[in-house]
Specification:
about 25% helix; 5-COMe_2-OHmuconate_Isoase; alpha/beta; 2 helices
Length: about 120
């Protein structure tokens, strides 16, 4: 915990994943809600198969989901979502003629059912 997963559509070529992972981890680890930098796990997933709406248009997406143990204030969640969105907004490719949709979601994880061990 926390877990940050960024999914993006395959029609966003040359996504700078490594640089974006570094920037995301830096901005999140600078936030007081992330107490131990070694707890942050961040990854990208490319959606090879996707549809956006029903119109035959050039559309793409980037969606980030940050999963945190429950208990954060709404203000803290809003700030974390804003930090993630700012990094993605800056680094997401914008191919000409393609509408890119960016979204960020903060999800509370159930504390009693979460298991984590360092082996």
């Amino acid at each position: 915990m926390p877990h940050l997963t960024i999914e993006y559509s395959a029609n966003l070529p040359h996504y700078p994943e490594a640089e974006t992972l570094t920037a995301l981890n830096a901005t999140l680890c600078a936030h007081p809600q992330v107490q131990d930098e070694a707890d942050l796990k961040t990854r990208f997933i490319v959606a090879d198969s996707f549809e956006i709406g029903i119109a035959p248009a050039n559309r793409a997406f980037v969606h980030a989901q940050l999963r945190l143990l429950a208990g954060r204030t709404p203000e803290a969640k809003t700030e974390l979502a804003g930090r993630i969105a700012a990094v993605l907004r800056e680094r997401t490719p914008r191919p000409q003629g393609v509408m890119v949709q960016l979204s960020v979601e903060i999800v509370d994880m159930d504390r009693p059912s979460y298991v984590k061990e360092r082996l």
